[in-house]
Write a structure and sequence with these properties.
The chain is mainly β. Helices cover 7% and strands 29% of the residues. InterPro entries: YjdM, YjdM_C, YjdM_N.
């Protein structure tokens, strides 16, 4: 029986331990049927329900205060070439650079696809 590659580091040396699959290279553990579930859950949508992808351009739909700064990302600001972060635990699932501000992370619920 052929075991799937590690979903985290793509190592081909995964092995079974009970009902878990384990990667010896990165120590990632997952259930065999979990791989299909995480791919389905990894879809990130904007405020209007459009599916976002790496490299898309989005527009901010709400003034966003930047934590630890007096700067604000204004409504209507276009953000080009976004990068999605499907495993974001804090809800900030878009990594991007905003002109005049720099590199920040955004929540997909505050943007719309341009």
């Amino acid at each position: 029986m052929s075991l799937p590659n590690c979903p985290k580091c793509q190592s081909e040396y995964s092995y079974e331990d009970g009902d878990l699959l384990i990667c010896p290279e990165c120590s990632h553990e997952w259930k065999a049927n979990e791989e299909a579930q995480t791919e389905a859950e990894a879809v990130i949508k904007d405020a209007n329900g459009n599916v976002l992808a790496d490299g898309d351009t989005v527009t901010v739909i709400k003034d966003l205060k930047i934590k630890g700064s007096s700067s604000v990302v204004k409504v209507g600001t276009k953000v080009k070439n976004i990068r999605l972060l499907p495993e974001a635990s804090d809800g900030h699932d878009i990594d991007c650079k905003v002109d005049g501000i720099g590199a920040i992370k955004l929540k997909s619920e505050y943007v719309k696809k341009a």
